[in-house]
Amino acid sequence: MIASYGRGGAGNMSNNPVSPLSYKDLQTPTLKTSVYTTGRGGSGNMASNNDPKEARLRQDVEPVVRRPSAGAVYAGRGGAGNIFHNDELTRSKSAEYAVDDTSSGKSVKSLDLSFANKWLRSRK
């Protein structure tokens, strides 16, 4: 079985005929101490381990639901060119320049680049 690790590249490939995980690795661990902790710490987050089911439920953490971003949205690897604001992402004009995949695949409306040509010519 070939496995890929890291960000990519041939140096991050491994040919391992057997999975490094065993059945034991995938089992839910059981708490074996008389006291267990929950939360971030502190004596208020310590409880006696006298009910295994209750202890297991307290150890499980629910995922935090992501709320929509109200500010900037970051894309790519970084840099100012990869920061977008909500008003830029929700412009109504974006639909005018969308590609129509259902018919010929041509742009629904062509983009006027005359301002870019004027700017490029003025730079000479």
TrEMBL record:
Coiled-coil positions: none
InterPro entries in the record: Cisplatin_resist-associated (IPR053203), DUF3602 (IPR022024)
Chain segments carrying region Disordered: 1-58
Composition bias type Polar residues, residue spans: 12-37
Composition-biased stretches (Gly residues): 1-11
Protein name, UniProt field: Uncharacterized protein
Annotated source species: Parascedosporium putredinis
